[in-house]
Design goal:
The protein is mainly alpha-helical and 338 residues long. The protein has three domains: 50 residues; 80 residues, DNA polymerase, domain 1 (Orthogonal Bundle); 155 residues, hpI Integrase, Chain A, CATH 1.10.443. Helices cover 48% and strands 7% of the residues. Strand 2 and strand 3 form a beta hairpin.
Length: 338
């Protein structure tokens, strides 16, 4: 029930607007007092100031404002470059649906409905967008921008772990048909069990006497991948990627002018190479660049613990998911090999 006005003339004021010591003040339901204008201003000016503040408040309470605040935060800037790029991509899907909504009116059932509809197109992308949306609300909740996280408790779709193992026939066919850029990247991914992002960001200063220094962008694990004949050959090939005399790039995998490849630019080149090999050989070539890392881990000799050390994974269960080669086991009546 609204508070009774002491002065009957004050009933001409907007709801929750009162006279302060030196100015008219709006006391929103969320708390606090917002100055509108001086006490000597006419009523129509009070209403004008009130409506402007309400509009500003409504805009500051939208999902769009929450996401913008997250994108401008130090938390966002501390994320890996590719993660930031992915989050902006996810925002383009989420904001057309939720952008104009008040942050405190987004309910778990709304998120569930979005997931169900988005999942008809791609369950994997629905899960990624859910994670992004939840990250924004967690950021807002910790800073008083929203009262709760509506994504909490909304289940993601169950994802099947990838089991695709690239055979030697497929690898060799792709390598043979690829240009030097793809060849160098393939070898680094396979031999060093490295991610695409770490390969594209690799600098020539990381090439050391003992091997190649790699600080994984995702886990932060730092390693020196020791030299092997194939690794030496890949680095030697990388030095011939620029096509202009005197041009020296600071990137190991670089464009002809020495500049760095963007993720999208390299991915496009990768897809075209696979398509060309698929048409020429009839092989499915239905694997991703990231599957090259899994092939490297799968082809490593040694125990799972030894593979974990080389791969740089912090959790051995993650290494187990990358170990995709089908293992040979004895039949019940077969003899143990000595």
């Amino acid at each position: 029930m609204p508070r009774k006005r002491t002065n009957p003339q004050d009933y001409a004021l907007p709801k929750r607007v009162y006279k302060g010591r030196s100015a008219y003040e709006w006391h929103p339901a969320s708390g606090g007092a917002i100055r509108l204008c001086a006490l000597d201003q006419p009523i129509h000016e009070v209403w004008r100031a009130y409506e402007e503040k309400v509009k500003e408040s409504d805009k500051a309470s939208t999902v769009q404002h929450l996401v913008n605040s997250f994108f401008q935060s130090a938390d966002f800037q501390e994320l890996a470059t590719e993660t930031r790029k992915d989050y902006r991509k996810y925002a383009k899907k989420v904001l057309p649906v939720f952008g104009k909504m008040n942050v405190n009116k987004v309910k778990p059932e709304h998120v569930r409905l979005y997931m169900d509809k988005r999942g008809l197109q791609s369950r994997t992308q629905a899960n990624r967008e859910h994670a992004f949306f939840s990250r924004c609300f967690r950021f807002g909740y910790e800073r008083g921008l929203c009262k709760s996280n509506p994504c909490k408790g909304v289940r993601k779709f169950k994802e099947k772990g990838r089991k695709r193992y690239i055979t030697d026939i497929e690898y060799n066919a792709l390598y043979k048909a690829a240009d030097p850029v793809i060849q160098v990247a393939m070898e680094l991914a396979y031999l060093c069990c490295a991610r695409q992002g770490d390969i594209l960001a690799m600098r020539t200063s990381q090439i050391l006497e003992d091997g190649i220094f790699i600080a994984q962008g995702k886990t932060g694990v730092e390693q020196i991948k020791e030299w092997s004949p194939r690794l030496h050959k890949a680095i030697a090939l990388s030095k011939r990627l620029t096509d202009k005399p005197g041009v020296v790039s600071t990137f190991v995998v670089c464009q002809a002018d020495g500049s760095r490849f963007t993720r999208d630019g390299f991915s496009s080149r990768w897809r075209k190479t696979r398509s060309k090999v698929r048409e020429k050989t009839g092989l499915p070539m239905d694997f991703t660049f990231h599957d090259l890392k899994a092939k490297g881990i799968s082809d490593l000799d040694g125990t799972l613990q030894e593979k974990q050390e080389i791969s740089g994974h912090k959790d051995i269960r993650q290494t187990a998911r990358y170990d995709r080669k089908v293992h040979k086991v004895r039949a019940v009546d077969s003899k143990k090999s000595k």
